């Protein structure tokens, strides 16, 4: 996009904000198994703004709960918090939606996420969300959590249908359908987790951080040569 607007390609470097593998890593011994709990647990964590589609996730839970026991943990805060809590109350979903607004250390966040059966990235599609790759998605992948995500341009540039369970952005019925489909198919959840590891092998923080340091070193040497 920058190049198309006139920025020379040689002036652009990309440092992807991937999950730190020292904190966000798979821990099978900790993971709760749905086989031992009849409640399908979903999680969303991050900023609570309209463009991130959390209201869509809440409405989808309202549809899904008619068929399966389900619980969505919404961890984070933001301008939409009060509206989301009101929506939850209006739909009578207090027993299915849990809000967690307490700031926690990053290590504790990883443990909180690992209690879920799937992560939800319900972004609305607009000029902003089409250009961002959600860090939360990469954190779910790093922790070995299957992901249900909106089919946006940025996400599909790095993940395909074998790695993520996609739904149509803004479509609550389609989101509900894919939640039910993933809950019913444990083998598919495992396949998604396995396939999504391709992303981690290609974009590890150890490699990207080394590239970033090398970039800063090159810039510093260039500046040092200037009179």
Structural topology:
Elements lengths: L39 E6 L8 H11 L5 E6 L5 H10 L6 E4 L5 H8 L4 E4 L13 H9 L3 E4 L2 H6 L6 E3 L4 H13 L1 H17 L2 H21 L2
Parallel strand pairs: 1-2, 1-4, 2-3, 4-5, 5-6
Helix pairs in contact: 1-6
Folded structure, characterized:
The protein is an alpha/beta fold and 227 residues long. Helix content is 42%, strand content 12%. It is built from 8 helices and 6 strands; from the N terminus they run E-H-E-H-E-H-E-H-E-H-E-H-H-H. It has a 6-stranded parallel β-sheet with strand order 3-2-1-4-5-6, with helices on both faces. Helix 1 crosses helix 6 (172-184). It is globular, with a radius of gyration of 19 Å. The model has no long low-confidence stretch (mean pLDDT 92).
Please describe the structure with a list of short key phrases separated by commas or semicolons.
alpha/beta; about 230 residues; globular
Concise summary:
The protein is 42% helix and 12% strand.
What is the averaged pLDDT score? 92
Share of helix among residues?
40-55%
Give the radius of gyration. Answer: 19 Å
The best one-word shape is globular
Contiguous low-pLDDT stretches (5 residues minimum) are none
User: How would you spell out the order of helices and strands?
Assistant: EHEHEHEHEHEHHH
Query: How many E-type strands?
Result: 6
Determine the number of helices (DSSP H or I, runs of at least 4 residues): 8
Beta-strand content estimate: 5-15%
| N- and C-termini, Cα separation | 33 Å
Assign the structural class, choosing from mainly alpha, mainly beta, alpha/beta, alpha+beta, or little secondary structure: alpha/beta
Strand order of the largest sheet: 3-2-1-4-5-6
Largest sheet: 6 strands, parallel
